[in-house]
Amino acid sequence: MNEFEKDPQSKNNDVVDSIKGFSFSFIFFVLIFAIGVLFNVVGS
Hints:
This is YqzM family protein. Keywords: Membrane, Transmembrane, Transmembrane helix. InterPro entries: YqzM. The chain crosses the membrane at residues 21-42. The protein is mainly α. The protein is 77% helix and 0% strand. It has helices spanning 3-6, 14-43. The radius of gyration is 19 Å and the shape is rod-shaped.
């Protein structure tokens, strides 16, 4: 067992980090899509 496995920097669950990363990226792309749709509706 190496020294990094004995003392990890982050002791929280990886599933929580995965859910956070997925939700933040999903919200970001939905926001970009909504801005594009808004410009499309306003422009037409």
